Amino acid sequence: MRETHDYSVGPLAFFAGALIGVGIALLLAPYSGEETRSRLREYAGRAKDDLIERGREAKATFDTAVERGRESFDSVKERGKQAYEAGMGAVREGGRR
User: Fold this and answer.
1) Could you report the per-residue pLDDT of 41-69, keeping only the tens digit for each?
2) What does the DSSP 8-state code read for residue 7?
3) Is 46:54 a contact under the CB 8 Å cutoff?
């Protein structure tokens, strides 16, 4: 059973749509070349800031998931130790009888 998670489809589709939109906007822009370039720089700056923020959010989500995984592992490990010790204690008690 193979399970894959592809989280890059959403952002990739977003950027592909953005590029297509920019291309159409350039073809139909009622602004001068200088004003169009200025608007594009502003748009690119906002897109960059948004991308950085989404990266931070993704990192925070990943870090949280890793920490929860560690806590779960430690909990299961501790329960395993306790079960092992209880089993060994039962074996020792059984050997004394």
Assistant:
1) 898 899 999 999 999 999 999 999 999 99
2) T
3) no
Kindly list the domain boundaries of the chain, sorted by start residue. Answer: 29-96
SS3 readout for 42-87: HHHHHHHHHHHHHHHHHHHHHHHHHHHHHHHHHHHHHHHHHHHHHH
pLDDT digits (tens, 9 = 90+) for 66-83: 999 999 999 999 999 999
Selection from 19, 81, 6 nearest residue 47 by Cα: 19
Contact yes or no for 75/65 (Cβ under 8 A): no
- Other C-beta atoms lying within 10 Å of the C-beta of residue 40: 14
Residues in the chain: 97
pLDDT at 55: 92
Helix, strand and coil content of the chain, in percent to the nearest 5, comes to 85, 0, 15
pTM, full prediction: 0.49
Spatial separation of the C-alpha atoms in residues 26 and 32, rounded to whole Å: 10
